[in-house]
Amino acid sequence: MTSEPTAILDPDDVRCPVALLLIDVINSLDFPNAEALLKHAMPMAERIQALKAQAKRHGVPVIYVNDNFGRWRSDFRSLIDDCLRPETLGRPIAERLRPDEDDYFVLKPMHSGFYLTPLEILLARLEAKTLILTGMATNICVFFTANDAHMRGYQIVAPSDCSAAESADDHQHTLAQLHKVMQADISPSTGIDFPRLLAGGKS
């Protein structure tokens, strides 16, 4: 698939060793068991909003990595508009986490943010080495993106309070796997030390 090229061709000169990824937070939640996910996603969205604000204060770029939901003629802005409709289950999350003008975005056709997307090219341009992964669902798209990031040598931070799954068990089990298999830092977002990450250390 081809996503809009503005995320890659933006003429600014942003270079940063850390990038914050928001995975599938612009989401209509139009699928079975979505209400179970929404229950866990609402507190997640509050924590991501605070983390995003902190990241921006430290000059860390924010990248929305979002499913296209099979809408091959859509772009990210039309997906946002769709998720902001009053009758949409995911509207409260989309309202809280809608992107700013200077945020980047990548549309993906499958679970991983790296699969058939320009994400790797964008991260190379930004010179990112550490990825802070947030969003939903922990055990699906966050996990698949983390797996592909790990195979590419990125340091992974997956704050435990900034992702959500349909059940607490699924969420906790996946976080344990991220920590054990991919050496991801799964500490809560309040413990992220941006100056240390930006200096090349661990969070």
Automatic annotation (TrEMBL):
GO terms for molecular function: isochorismatase activity. The keyword Hydrolase applies. Keywords: Hydrolase. Its EC number is 3.3.2.1. Residues 19-180 form the Isochorismatase-like domain. This is Isochorismatase.
